Amino acid sequence: MTLSLNVAAPDLGALDTPLLVVALGASPALAADLAPVDAATHGGLGRALARRDFRGGRDELLHLSGGERGVQRVLLVGMGAATDRTGALRRAAALAGRQANKLGAGKIAFYGGALDATEVEAVGLGLIAGSWDFKELKSPTPPDDERAMLSEATILAADAAARDAGVRAARAIGEGHSLARRLGMLPGNICTPDYLADTAREIGKRHGMKVTVLGRAEMQKEKMGSFLSVAQGTIQDPKLIVVEHMKGPKGTKPIALVGKGLCFDSGGISIKPAAGMEWMKFDMCGAAGVLGAMEAIGRLELPINVVGLIGSTTNMPSGEAVKPGDVVQASNGKYIEIINTDAEGRLVLADVLVYAKRYDPGAVIDAATLTGAAVIALGHTATGVLGTDDALVQEVLDAGKRSGEPGWPLPLWEDYKELIKSDVADIKNSGGRPAGTITAAMFLREFAEGYPWVHLDVAGTAYTETDLGTVPRGPTGVPVGTFVEFVRARAH
Ligand code: BES
Ligand code: MN
Ligand code: ZN
């Protein structure tokens, strides 16, 4: 994270900033608190509102020119007639962060009226997310052409306690969020299973977390025939990565966060079409979400037990790759007929979910870019949420809502089990096209035994192939917010 996030009291008259962002709701009036902004724009703000040039609609933007000194530019951002003010502020801040990068302002101040701690945090997270970008693999641009990236943002809020609590949380979670996006953006030749393991070790070192890494040999000892069948076509060593944050009361059951970490998914022998295959470097976004959440949880020093588990490999065709029709045995003894080698995420997660049982978790939440069907059902707007415990499903949905990462429930009814019955084995790894997201989760359920479990299908929400306005093409940071909100609420 490159953005330095600060807070200050909203003394708009004395402000010295290249860009002041003002977030306003629908049909805004020139309220008394905005008088200094009106003065700085030589009456421009009042005229823009009176003429209805700016109506405060969601995502509406209007630039106004300020003075030579003091407030030098003003950007109005509309929040619409939102009922969720926290969410609207987060979104407005994200748009403002993106605009600031486009403008090259370098530094900004953000004003959104009176803010409580949750709202300061949301603004901070919006600014961090909006100004995030990935330049590591581009040669530096000549200084003349370069626009300054947003490097410093100050959130203006009157309540000192809210300011401090909010900005501290935003910095911690923002760091985890940015880490997840960076990992998502890194290509498969750089972000390998080994790279994810090294990243986990760094997080562990920073925050005093124990990190355990199993490779191919160790997984063979654990009889993880399902996970290993996916890894058998790649020369890269697969990794099962465990990060333990044990800061809760001794003896309390940990929360387990599980992530799919396919550093590249070619489909294997059931190979994917060439067009767009490069997007499958993002097939490790569930794992990135776990690592991002562990980083945030470490920074927040949450007094709770959390175990992060990641199953990481690369799904490749080769002479040694697993074939359609092969039958493999998972570490819980169940036999799986592999119908389609491209349904690999569930094969990896099966053994990781069995492994999670040894931590005697009180709740297990996995996140995976698991099915194209989730994108068809819910688009890039909502994560598919399925699980074995209704109360836990609701708790996860609530956490998603609070963090601006909405989920939507899908059923796990027995009827769907028919679709994954195999002629030769206990279960098959593909139920075909109908209810693809549900049958994938029904498959996972066979291995998520002995604890309450929720599955997040983030195939549509963890990354986007089109610009979403607040988020450019690429990784979104989902499900870091959902994970962190869930754990935080349980830590209270
Ligand atoms: N990683 C993909 C799912 C995916 C597809 C994520 C598109 C994001 C965008 C997963 O491994 C996969 O290939 N799933 C198959 C399952 C099918 C073969 C049963 C799918 O969704 O087509
Ligand atoms: Mn696949
Ligand atoms: Zn995949």
Taking all Cα atoms into account, the compactness measure Rg is 24 Å
Q: Let me know the largest β-sheet.
A: 8 strands, mixed
Q: Helicity level, as a percent range? A: 25-40%
Oligomer: single chain
On the 0 to 100 scale, the average pLDDT is 97
Molecules bound to protein: ligand BES, manganese (II) ion, zinc ion
Q: So how many helices?
A: 14
Query: Which spans of ≥5 residues are poorly predicted at pLDDT below 50?
Result: none
Report on this model:
By secondary structure, this protein is α/β, with parallel strands linked by helices. The protein is about 35% helix and about 20% strand. The protein has 14 helices and 19 strands. The protein has helices at about 35-40, 45-50, 85-105, 115-130, 160-185, 195-205, 215-220, 225-230, 285-300, 345-355, 370-380, 390-400, 435-445, 480-490; strands at about 5-10, 20-25, 60-65, 75-80, 105-110, 150-155, 210-215, 240-245, 255-265, 305-315, 325-330, 335, 365-370, 385, 405-410, 425-430, 455, 465, 475. The strands form four sheets. It has an eight-stranded mixed sheet with strand order 7-8-10-9-13-17-14-15, sandwiched between helices. It has a six-stranded mixed sheet with strand order 1-6-5-2-4-3. The protein has a three-stranded mixed sheet with strand order 11-12-16. Helix 4 (about 115-130) links the parallel strand 5 and strand 6. Helix 3 (about 85-105) runs parallel beside helix 4 (about 115-130) and helix 5 (about 160-185) runs antiparallel to helix 9 (about 285-300). The chain is elongated. The mean pLDDT is about 95. Bound molecules: ligand BES, manganese (II) ion and zinc ion. The site of ligand BES has 16 residues, from helix 11. Manganese (II) ion binds near residues 265 and 267.
